[in-house]
Amino acid sequence: MKTSVIAPLGLSPPVITAFIKGIAEPINDVVVLTTDNEEVKKGYELVKIGLKIKYPRIRIHEIKLPFDDVYTTEQNLRFMAIAARTIKEEREVHRCDRIFLNIAGGRKNMCITLSLLGQLMGVDGVFHVVTKDVAIVNQMLESLREDIKRIYEAKDEEEKIKIYREKERYFNSLLFPAKSEYEIIRIPTLPYPADYLIKLVTAVHSSNLDSLLTEEKEVLYRHGILDKIGRRYIVSDYGRELTKIIVHPK
Length: 250
Description:
Blueprint: E1 3-8, H1 14-22, E2 29-34, H2 38-54, E3 59-64, H3 73-92, E4 98-102, H4 108-120, E5 125-131, H5 134-143, H6 145-153, H7 157-166, H8 168-175, E6 182-186, H9 194-205, H10 214-222, E7 226-229, E8 232-235, H11 237-247
Parallel strand pairs: 1-2, 1-4, 2-3, 4-5
Antiparallel strand pairs: 5-6, 7-8
């Protein structure tokens, strides 16, 4: 059984690696969602090298988001589309049987969006990583900042591994702390009945709102997916974009 972990990366690389260690289940794929932020790029190189050394059988790959941060609704929807496509590819292309989402990295809106998407697309678990003493982690990150930069700037993987090995004890303490130093929290999710979700999404995506009950249309209106002109409901621009992402993630 193949298991994939999909995780956005912010400015704290250990939340990804600590999860891989702490979940205590065999992981086959790790997909890291990164932005154009240079500190995030440095963190990804550290995560990649650390995982390659400790878990050489794990396939690690990066999905680059086309912005340095998520500031607007449009960017958040774009992030949602990329995450949806990634989940779909992990299932259909890489043949992963289970998918876990680690939402500990990245902006809060990215984490919330990913949690919602996890429910809509029926992933097998949404998790958060809570570090018990953030100050210590920040101190360790700061003390290794120059070495992390060296790894990022190294010309090839062999040199990156060599730099990591020079301070392996310290890097391992940062990336793979003792389980007593953090908690993995499972975020409560309830799977949607697939046929009902398909009914709602299809009705909105095709603008065939006559197939919905008045109560259903009113709920969709309150969530911004429909607009109202007098007593008539129409699909909002936001609802059109949202359902397009669910129907055709790309």
